[in-house]
Design brief:
324 residues, 2% strand, EmrE-like, transmembrane, SCL35B1-4/HUT1, transport
């Protein structure tokens, strides 16, 4: 059993990494749902998704900067690619938030995001001439079909909780995920060609810096900075939720980087994949979602697809899904 300089064994580091990721991101998901389900005394809801991304990315920048001061930064990084990656990533996150703000239930949104392989596969097939196995197609189909069934079966008070606009935004978010996957591959290739090995906090700081800049520009153009700040000032209760949400994001990312630094990326992929399933179940049992029998069938089908995708990675088969 190896022990590092700090005296931590590998099992201890694994417990710290896994425990940190689960704790931070399960709470993160719960808070995200709370933010967009919050109703002010005047009956209005928080819908400033891009403004929320500014706040979240800013906290991550602060933590990333501190990490860089401790670990040291890497010079000569392809910042243009970081800018593209940050823009696409914040777009995906903002559109997910907009889906929640426009009536899509949290369980459906998380399951749908687990099907991000669909746009990645489509882009690779159309542009890259990639080929996939029948199993890979079935995995993605199971996640998509299960999500659709949950969307139909997820009822509350006799009304479907998944609006057409919410579905539209989650589809756009998935497209942005597909674009992000391609950009990240190009980013890693450019770093390798330049003989660079970016450190975890290089990724955290620079990606979130460009995420914040993009979100700020969009939120300014949409007037969300002023309306978001006004809404928070009028409803201080939501400020606590947003603050904890942003802090959980930064803490969770730090534990992800800790896990990646100490173990193979597959370990982190496994943890983040299973975390999505627990996030869905936690939401169903704690947020008052009501599922009929068809909804539970959809949960089982989508979960099976997610676990099959994870099993493929564990056994070394290349899958199309980029988990983050």
């Amino acid at each position: 059993m190896t022990v590092d300089d700090a005296g931590l064994s590998d099992p201890a580091k694994l417990i710290i990494g896994v425990g940190g990721i689960y704790s931070a991101f399960l709470y993160y998901g719960s808070l995200q749902e709370d933010v967009f389900r919050y109703t002010a005394p005047d009956g209005t809801n928080f819908k400033q998704a891009w403004f929320l991304q500014v706040v979240e990315a800013f906290v991550n920048i602060v933590v990333g900067f501190i990490g860089l001061q401790i670990s040291g930064g890497t010079k000569g990084l392809p910042l243009k690619m970081f800018a593209l990656s940050g823009t696409s990533q914040v777009s995906a996150k903002a559109f997910t938030s907009l889906a929640l703000a426009n009536g899509l239930s949290f369980p459906v949104a998380i399951l749908a995001k687990s099907g991000k392989a669909a746009p990645v596969m489509a882009g690779s097939l159309l542009l890259g001439g990639a080929k996939y196995t029948g199993r890979e197609y079935l995995q993605v189909l199971a996640i998509i079909a299960g999500t659709a069934i949950v969307g139909i079966g997820n009822k509350k008070g006799g009304e479907s909780s998944s609006s057409g606009l919410g579905v539209f935004f989650i589809v756009i978010s998935l497209v942005a995920d597909g674009i992000t996957g391609g950009i990240q591959k190009k980013l890693k290739a450019d770093c390798a060609d330049a003989g660079l090995r970016p450190k975890p906090y290089d990724f955290m700081f620079w990606t979130n810096l460009f995420m914040a800049l993009t979100a700020f520009i969009v939120s300014i153009s949409l007037g969300e900075v002023s309306t978001g700040a006004y809404y928070i000032a009028e409803n201080p209760e939501i400020l606590s939720k947003i603050t904890r949400f942003a802090v959980c994001s930064a803490v969770g990312q730090s534990f992800i980087f800790f896990t990646i630094a100490n173990f193979e990326p597959l370990v982190c992929t496994t943890v983040t994949t299973t975390r999505k399933i627990f996030s869905v179940m936690l939401s169903i049992f704690t947020k008052g979602h009501s599922l009929d029998n068809h909804g539970w069938v959809g949960i089982a089908l989508a979960t099976g697809g997610i676990l099959a995708e994870m099993e493929s990675k564990v056994n070394g088969r290349k899958g199309p899904i980029l988990n983050t």
